[in-house]
Amino acid sequence: MGHFQLVHVTPPPLTPERIEAIKSDPHSSKSVRVNVKCRECGSEYKTYFGLERNEATENDRWKWAAEIEDESEFRCSCGKTVYPLKYMKTGLQGLLGKPVSEEEVEITPLYEGTALRRVREDFLDLINSNPKEEIVQKFIQKNPILLHMFSAKKIIEKPTIGTKYYADFAILDSRNDLILIEIERPNTRLMKKDGHRSQELIHAFDQVGDWKIRFEEHRISILDEIGVSPSEVNNVRGAVIAGREKGADASHLRALKMRRNDDLLVMTYDDIIGAMDTLITEIERR
After folding, report:
1. Mind telling me which Pfam families this protein's record contains (predicted)?
2. Which of 79, 100, 141, 180 has the largest CB neighbor count within 10 A?
3. Mean pLDDT lowest among 104-113, 167-176, 241-250
4. Is the pLDDT of residue 2 over 70?
5. pTM for the predicted model, two decimal places
6. Which domains can be identified in the chain, with CATH numbers?
């Protein structure tokens, strides 16, 4: 017979970029709680970890996992249950961004339908007011769930692309592709009457193209600047979020989106609203 060895691997640090990615995942958790309990005497040890500390939880005798002493252990009153606590201290944060069975730990979902509907309605009101792209960028930065379709592992806000350029966001996705996102105004004209791309949209595409050229020329230094390891990145892609679909010729719009390739994704603000509608339906069916 063969044999195997189980080891505990400490999850990566909960960086600001990772926290933003967790917030963009509709299936993630905002906190996890574990209760170690002796079946014989009933002694218990309760610990939790989350995106934020919770005073009410701690008043109910749940200990913040990050404050567990390194070599401490839970030893029940009867002495039959002994459990090292270091694994909780270093491991619970790794569960925040993963779907977890409620049989394993007690989880608190990060999003519910009501909260998602509020984000969706506020975003729709915003883009209907034809704001500048900077205002849209800040709203998305505050509500990264609007980027859930990218399956982010990390979200970097306003990353520098060399010394000359800034993207609105960079996303390291689940395929280890780095996606550089350019945000244009909601009232950006997408196409001319003949179906060809508007000058505004061409400019946005050229901007992303310049980023990718600069990235290929200075890959290592740019990744170092934005806090991503070269080993984490397989490919670099671009995405442009711009314009509304109302009034656009349906066949021209389909052609515009079909012209995209693996290196450049074109999304309208209506695509984001539609994705939120689909997500809300999914969450409310749970």
Report:
1. SduA_C (PF14082)
2. 180
3. 104-113
4. no
5. 0.78
6. 16-109 (no CATH), 113-284 (3.40.91.30)
